[in-house]
Write a structure and sequence with these properties.
The complex is a heterodimer of chains A (about 110) and B (about 110). Chain A has about 110 residues and is mainly beta. Helices cover about 0% and strands about 55% of the residues of chain A. Chain A has one domain: Sandwich (Immunoglobulin-like). Chain B has about 110 residues and is mainly β. Chain B has one domain: Immunoglobulin-like. In chain B, about 0% of the residues lie in helices and about 50% in strands. Chain B has no helices and eleven strands. In chain B, strands 2, 4, 5, 6, 9, 10 and 11 form a seven-stranded mixed β-sheet that branches. A four-stranded antiparallel β-sheet of chain B has the order 1-3-8-7, with no helix packed on it. Chain B is globular, with a radius of gyration of 13 Å. Classes of the chains: A mainly beta (about 110), B mainly beta (about 110).
């Protein structure tokens, strides 16, 4: 069974600091997705990474994919309070379903 | 921007009752999905639907669950006899090209009492 693990599970960081969330998965995949979820809300698509070495940036968030290491990272630069949310990675392995990671709950403290 | 619409947003039901969760996917999308998220946990796949039939389902999707696309726009998830452990947020999703990422609906919070 495919395992998708994120770390850390909980992250509390000060405004203005940088940090990285890691997503490891247990089998070969060339597609990885990052989603944001606010409490009680739906999943908002952040990034779609479609190949080894893919890097995408949007505002203070940057995501990358290393398919050989089976690792994706979500880097947060100069965090602001609005980034407080839970972040999920999800892996697609040529089946018709996504396997979601455990989620990282991010709290940005003023 | 096109949206996936789910109704109701919150449903409370008694154990043993049947519930139907409704979804209107994006109109030109071909692939439809249901996922669930128990409070505080990760999102879990239930079922995928393409060309008017189930293409994959998980172990969670047992005989109590069924899906239907009764007309050209709606996509429904039925739980025949709800259990307490069915309490969760249920998300519908759709996409147009199979592997380009989903658009999720806003979810239905199901509470079984």
């Amino acid at each position: 069974e495919l395992k998708v693990e994120q770390n850390p599970l909980f992250l509390s960081m000060q405004e203005g600091k940088n940090y990285t969330i890691y997503c490891n998965y247990s089998t070969t995949s060339d597609r990885l997705y990052w989603y944001r979820q606010d409490p009680g809300k739906s999943l908002e698509s952040l990034f779609v990474l479609l190949s080894n070495g893919a890097v995408k940036q949007e505002g203070r968030l940057m995501a990358s994919l290393d398919t050989k290491a089976r690792l994706s990272t979500l880097h947060i630069t100069a965090a602001v309070h609005d980034l407080s949310a839970t972040y999920f990675c999800a892996v697609d392995i040529w089946s018709n379903q996504f396997y979601f990671g455990t989620g990282t709950s991010l709290t940005v403290i003023p | 921007e096109p949206e996936v619409t789910q109704t109701p947003s919150h449903q409370v039901t008694q154990m043993g009752q049947e519930v139907i969760l409704r979804c209107v996917p994006i109109s030109n999308h071909l692939y439809f999905y249901w996922y669930r998220q128990i409070l505080g946990q990760k999102v879990e796949f239930l079922v995928s639907f393409y060309n008017n039939e189930i293409s994959e389902k998980s172990e969670i999707f047992d005989d109590q669950f069924s899906v239907e696309r009764p007309d050209g726009s709606n996509f429904t998830l039925k739980i025949r006899s709800t259990k307490l452990e069915d309490s969760a947020m249920y998300f519908c999703a759709s996409n147009g090209q199979g592997r380009s990422g989903y658009t999720f609906g806003s979810g239905t919070r199901l509470t079984v009492v």
